[in-house]
Amino acid sequence: MWLKPEEILLKNAFKLWVTEKGNDYFVLQRRRGYGEGGGGLTGLLVGTLDTMLDSTSKVAPFRILHQTPDSQVYWSIACGGTKEEISQHWEWLEKNIMRTLSVFDSSDDITSFVQGKIRGLIAEEGKVSCVQEDDPEKFREALLRFEKWFDLPQKEKLVTYYSCSYWRGRVPCQGWLYLSTNFLSFYSYLLGSEVKLVISWNEIWRLEKTSNVILTESIHVLANGEDHFFSMFLHLNETFLIMEQLADYSIKRLFDKETFQEEPSLSDPLQITKRGLETHARNEQFRAFFRLPKEENLLEVYESFLWVPFSHFNTLGKICLSESYLCFASQDGSQCHVIIPMREVIGVEKPDRSSRALIVCVRGKRALRFSEVRDFERLANAIRRRCGMTASPQHSASTEDNPEEVALMVGQKDSSKAVSTEALMTVFHPQDTENLDPKMLKEKMKEQSWNIHFSEYGRGTSMFCTKKTRDLIVRGIPEALRGELWMLFSGAVNDMATNPGYYSELVDQSLGTSTLATDEIERDLHRSLPEHPAFQSDTGISALRRVLTAYAYRNPKIGYCQAMNILTSVLLLYAKEEEAFWLLVAVCERMLPDYFNRRIIGALVDQAVFEELIRMHLTQLTEHMTDLTFFSSVSLSWFLTLFISVLPIESAVNVVDCFFYDGIKAILQLGLAVLDYNMEGLISSHDDAEAVTILNKFFDNVTNKDSPLPQTVQQNSVGNNDKASSISKVDVSDLIKEAYEKYGDMKSEEVESMRKRNKLYVIQTLEDTTKQNVLRVVSQEVKFSASQLDELYVLFKRQHFLSCYWTMNSPVLLHHDPSLAYLEQYQLGFHQFSLLFSLLEPWSLCSGKDTLFLWAFRLLDENQDGLVNFKEFCCALDILYSGTFTNKLTFLFKLHQPPECQKTHCAFCFTPTGRGKVDLQAYLKQWQDEILKKEESIKDLPRINQAQFIQFSKTLYNLFHSDPEEESLYRAVARVTSLLLRMEEVGRRLQEPTSPQKSSTSPIQAALEGALPDGEASSTPESSSDTPSTPITQEAGSIPQEVEWSFAFEQILASLLNEPVLVRFFERPVDIQARLDHAKCAQLKAKTNK
Q1: Predicted TM-score (pTM) of this structure
Q2: % helix / strand / coil in the chain, to the nearest 5?
Q3: Do the Cβ atoms of 410 and 500 come closer than 8 Å?
Q4: Burial of 891 (0-12, 13-18, 19+ CB in 10 A)
């Protein structure tokens, strides 16, 4: 590797370098401790220094120095990890530089010329590999060490590196931590002790920051059942953030099969950088905090003061600018934030240059004043530019004072007449304005409180959100304002405003389609709040069907999941149909990610977070119930339905109010408050059933005394009240208020951190469960031991991931179907199958590997989807490892049966078709066929023709390569081949009594010449040149019809059984463990060399 020229004053400092060769201008040196005579104490000391110090000139074992005859100063210009690498650099210098240097008169000119050439070479290399790094020179040095020490595939992208200590027991090893796209790697070399560690991100179970008596702060990594601790970081938080990002990126890419098409910085695994990961994390945090669409990215950040008119003071915070939004969040504890869509901005003014102030005017005759903005002119120009870009005719027209109505009008433009334009609660329970009962009066007082809030804080998308806003939400949002405020706090109002007509188009496209999701939706429609009048009529059922079907059409990855119907039915009660759709989008894709899918990973992660919070806040309960998995099973419905399934509807909507404002934090707080309220009963319970009964009775007695809904709508019926009269009632507002008072200090950032920390463990636990299920099924079909089958699964899964490590276009990614059974989740395309099969097959094939592997792949791929699953792979290996002579021969015979398995040149042109729409009938038929399938008889195997028999014979010869009895095996096959051909020739003659034509080549001789290796056919004693025959061509598939002949499997089997040496070869036991160990060591290298 060429290095940026650096001056070296002492040519042989500390006697660490030995000169290998030199001339008047360059010196090639080898570092002591490497190469010949590199052992002893010198080698140990030098190796230790190489690991500790951050300089490639000291680490690389070879280097080239530039010198001039009349100067004592040397310049390092190149280094290399091997003698071959440094020799290439030396040869380049001799060919391209040495002849030119003689024309210069002065040493300074020579040195300047050499330095210029070297810098030019480095610049050319940097254009390809290191252009996005902060310090390309140091990064190139680190990349050299990374490639030299770990021997990973060249495609593996190094992201960043850190100096740290790795703890083995109580002894720290100082070295270097390298973080690449797919691996966490560590290297240390201290006094002859080398420590090398490589862990795949997809193997990590735990990743967390820890501290104890010995280690003040460290990073704990749990992988493959082993704990690893790294400490002594200069920038521990930065390191942990990058590790967390890479682990999350790996999980999404490998387990969830995400392709990141909307994330340019992450769409190519070969171009991942530290800067790109940090930007991605910052954008995610920005969108989550302000509930913005996924298209928004944080572009600029400005510190400033915002004048808060209702409090009459300036609050310190940060202005965050994205493509379509101007956001502000305070940093002084006032919990004030505001979101201004650029479509609402009508002007930007700069009134006072001395205070660097900026006034942003928005619709509704409102203005926001920012002051002490460092670069206020740049910010003003950026806002003006974005307002011009996002302006549209409907935005530029004069509007009413309420911007919320404008946004909703835009979203509903050109909506279909079939779409409901009213909330179901408005239709089925219109408010009686003349009713002055106490509950209605209290409802009116709530509305008045909110109207006062709107007059002070604003209304619509640019409303200030403060502590007072949360206080009003805890008391409960009025029925008339619930839909509007849900839309605002969830960010769904922005989604709808920027996608006018989108929902109507989805409804038109999705209605009438028939999929697995629509079948499940139809089944669950009448189970959604069946006691509510709105869903006892066609109006409510139709609206629910349209929303759920449209969402399944929009997001087929989720489709439809149980609990979505319950949540959507509540949304339809308080929001218009299109609003309910966008609220569902906000919940499923932003606020509760990964909740509504096949594995409900998001809900399981939040349950793990809930368990962690129970240990932190309810210690008395954890002391009594050491196993908290009970709370996970009980609380699953709490998280999936936001307490709607366990609380009466009139109480549950208050919980949903808090959820849309505070996110999952509100659900976690309420769950802790529920357990705290029932602490005594839970502690005194004797079993899980009694604890469930206690919680159910509690939920039945949670009421909403302020609810204005009539008794026909409320779920808290009279019967339940009489039955539980001995249990005191709990008002939902009091319960929520208590939850905020006791656990409200919990920060959203802490919850997100706990989510990330527990996600790895939850996913790996699910993966382990999947593995056990697969192994239990496959173990009934094969003879492998439990440990061998476990190792095979690990190898198969890793090979599956290898197809995704360095590309986003692999067959397993393009045709991934998350609805498949666990046996089908991990599959291999042909390329990955051939790589793994070549490592595990028991014979040493000398030629024709690719064609044979293609035939094996097609034989195993029964459904012709271009993918092979683990069960199919294991069954094939089981035959080759543990099958009888007949089993193995049958397998080889089948490989040569189909016409497409003749000699072909398109082994690598195989294009998988992928899976289409899931056909349940097809799955049921396949299941039935497997049950009724009889054991295959060798008599059922079709015959093979001449071309296939010739290829079969060649395959047998290829199996014997490097075998101790290779010559005997060759001769045995030659005898069998000759015998079979003679038998077939005799049979053909008996069937065709006509006299044969004269020919110089018999069919036996022709077939033998095609079947046997070079030189074998002529030396076979059974072959005879004077046997009369019919002319025959040797090319497969071109045999004239009148001389076509074939063999049955029984004929071949009987002939081979007469050769003991062949029987011994096929029945020879295989060292399965040795093959598995070899595959584990060579798997990554096989990918590299391919």
Answers
A1: 0.78
A2: 55, 15, 35
A3: yes
A4: middle
